[in-house]
Design goal:
- With 398 residues, the protein is mostly helical.
- It has one domain: MFS general substrate transporter like domains (Growth Hormone, Chain: A, Up-down Bundle).
- The chain is 82% helix and 0% strand.
- It is built from 17 helices and no strands.
- Helix 3 packs antiparallel against helix 4, helix 3 packs antiparallel against helix 15 and helix 6 crosses helix 15.
């Protein structure tokens, strides 16, 4: 949790500033969407690789290598004076960002199946605490010049690497990992798993991965253009955008650290994931109808704050539960693989959605939000009966 928190602080020191830096280089919504997607392209290619690597050699070395790539990316960002350098930064950062699935597998290794949704929720709370703090530090670092946020993020990530090297213990069962490495390796396991999710969408693992990928794509696509929306309609700048991201991060921490566990105990993972999807869809549908009430800050920002609040609440209840359910319906020997495949599909969504949303934003700024809300509503249908499948898989494993 500490490692994930510090890593996310570094990420969010630079990401909220990216659209503003890009628009200064004459980029529009489509180019900003492409910048966001370039990260996801690299992550899409690397997530299964990180999953297999961590299954074979452990979660700890995979995390350290990924954070090293992030450090390089932040240094590039610090000195980027053209769009191609911003694209290069995002590609390098995305190559290391494939370790998201490794962090999730680490939690799945370390806690009992019945507690995985809570454990993943605590992990998400830690990362969202980084979401709350990082944008404020990034905006503050601008006082040291254009390179301040990038260099500060790189320095922080180096500290995180040192912390992980000294204190992060290996969670993987290395006896099992050695047996997997020694066993004959069937060719194309990742391709087969990816193809199976696409060709057998009715199977429980496939349905969970589709729920995750559509939901995360809709959310991340909106996140990519949210700064542009706020700048266009509410005159937000690079010096004030950090407060909006901090607000989202604080709500995410509260929801995941203080509320999620009780909600899982009361509703169960499958039902709570559907509640989260409903909240996410409602938030996406309300935001485009928010307008400033000139001369009345209360009527301007309170409705906007309430609509935006539904996004972190929805994601807090959805993604930890979906990932926990996935960890229950696949065997432990393939957990890293399937979580990597989940990130592959999520990465594909992160490639497609920001580009499509950016192009839509350039034409009609409300359309991306409405499309995202409709797609998230559809995923609620995919989650039917998932508790039953998870219980059957665990009974078979025992």
């Amino acid at each position: 949790m500490v490692t994930a928190f510090m890593d996310m602080v570094g990420v969010l020191m630079v990401v909220p500033l990216l659209p503003f830096f890009a628009t200064e280089m004459d980029a529009g919504g489509l180019v900003v969407g492409l910048l966001v997607s370039s990260f996801s392209i690299a992550q899409l290619l690397m997530a299964p690789v990180w999953g297999r690597f961590s299954d074979h050699y452990g979660r700890r070395p995979a995390l350290i290598i990924g954070m090293t790539a992030a450090t390089i990316a932040y240094v590039i960002f610090a000195f980027a004076d053209s769009l191609w350098l911003l694209f290069l930064m995002r590609l390098v950062q995305g190559a290391g960002g494939g370790t998201v699935s490794v962090i999730q597998a680490y939690v799945a290794d370390a806690v009992e199946p019945k507690d995985r949704a809570k454990g993943l929720g605590w992990l998400s709370a830690a990362t969202n605490a980084g979401v709350a703090l990082g944008p404020l530090l990034g905006s503050w670092a601008l006082q040291f010049g254009r390179s301040g946020p990038g260099l500060s993020a790189a320095a922080l990530t180096l500290v995180t690497i040192g912390f992980a090297w000294k204190y992060l213990r290996e969670s993987r069962d290395m006896v099992e990992a050695a047996a997997i490495r020694a066993a004959p390796k069937p060719a194309g396991r990742t391709r087969e798993a990816v193809f199976r999710v696409a060709s057998h969408p009715a199977e429980p693992p496939s349905r969970l991965i589709w729920i995750y990928s559509i939901g995360i794509g809709a959310f991340q696509g909106i996140t990519a253009i949210l700064a542009l929306f706020l700048a266009d309609r509410f005159c937000v700048t690079e010096h004030t955008i950090g407060y909006f991201f901090a607000y989202i991060g604080v709500l995410s921490v509260v929801a995941r650290a203080l509320v999620l566990g009780r909600m899982v105990d009361h509703f169960g993972e499958a039902r709570l994931s559907r509640i989260g999807l409903a909240l996410l869809a409602l938030g996406l549908g309300l935001i485009p109808f928010m307008h400033p009430a000139y001369g009345n800050p209360f009527l301007t920002y309170v409705p906007l704050a309430l609509a935006v609040a539904l996004l972190p609440l929805g994601t807090a209840f959805t993604f930890p539960c979906v990932t926990a359910l996935l960890s229950r319906v696949v065997p432990s020997s393939e957990r890293g693989l399937y979580m990597g495949v989940q990130q592959t599909f999520g990465g594909a969504s992160r490639v497609i959605f920001p580009i499509v949303y950016g192009a839509m934003f350039d034409r009609w700024i409300e359309l991306p939000f409405l499309l995202g809300a409709a797609l998230v509503v559809f995923t609620i249908y995919l989650g039917r009966g998932m508790d039953r499948f998870a219980q059957q898989a665990e009974a078979k494993a025992s």
